[in-house]
Amino acid sequence: MKAVGVKNGKGNADALFIEDGVPDPVPTSNRILVRIKAFGLNRMDIMQREDRYPYPLLPESGKIMGVEFSGIVENKGPDCSGDFQVGDKVFGLAYGGAYAQKIAVSEKMLMHLPSTLSFEEAAGIPETSFTAIQAVHLVGNLQPGQSVLIHAGASGVGQSAIQIAKVGGASTIFTTAGSDEKCDLCRSLGADFAVNYRSGEDFSEVVKRETNGRGVDLIVDLVGRDYFHRNMSSAAMDSRMVLVAALSGSKVDDFDLRALLNKRIWLMATTLRTRAADYQGQLRDLFSEKILPHIKSGEVKTTVDKVFPWTQVSDAHKRLESNVNAGKIICLVNDD
């Protein structure tokens, strides 16, 4: 088969190329072989391409990038017990290997493709939605009637988190984004207040004003260092903060632990790719129960920023790196 490779093992976006003669994956045990139609891009792909991925990759990850995809079932392993059949349209999550024509993944990480979704839309759902539902519900424990602050609201994870919080009964949703257009998008997805961080407006002041000084019950943060002190200011008593990523850096200067003690803030961190397949299967089941029906009905939307043919994967990576996208960047895979 063909797959996306990186010249010399690591490099910039221009080092990406379509490599021929890559061994086909084999669907052993409970794995299912899927012919990929589309895959979604994530920032972890950039870090893996540059050989600076900050977490240890599991053996299942392999050298091929990509963790979310859509496609058609081609074969099944001998231990598969689910209802997936050859020819079914599916989408799912992987530890790696989605930048390719074929992938073999655990049936626990696969879902049937709803008739209301295209391959392009579905390919951008699993990583972002699973990360968001993990942060909002499994770790963040958002309860109906509670308020939430979601950073990077126009990112794939941010958009999913806004909508998951909305259908989960959040009373007020605050978010941050990098342009007025992105803020408008966040509001269209359910955010009550969207702060353009490039405008000079301070999100912590907005939270303080709109909550009468109380703060929010849950903070979902993908930014890290640059927002940490203002997150503490935005947090309510007995609130929770879930750290999902640290895009601005991971080392916080002049941090006083008293900020946590004074408000009894629960500070938690979570990752997805390093989780075991059983855990990711639980997330799939939770997603299928709580979110997928809303996707089928159109209440929860997937915003596709731009679709590239996979022969232009370098351009797709450059767009992601430029941070101009609002929503998912998708690559379509051909069989040639």
Automatic annotation (TrEMBL):
* Keywords, alphabetical: NADP, Oxidoreductase
Question: Oxidoreductase as a keyword?
Answer: yes
Per UniProt, residues of the Enoyl reductase (ER) domain are 11-331
Q: Does the keyword Cell inner membrane apply?
A: no
One annotated GO molecular function is:
oxidoreductase activity, acting on NAD(P)H
What Gene3D superfamilies does this protein map onto? Medium-chain alcohol dehydrogenases, catalytic domain (3.90.180.10), NAD(P)-binding Rossmann-like Domain (3.40.50.720)
Superkingdom of origin: Eukaryota
What protein am I looking at?
A: Quinone oxidoreductase
Organism name: Aspergillus kawachii
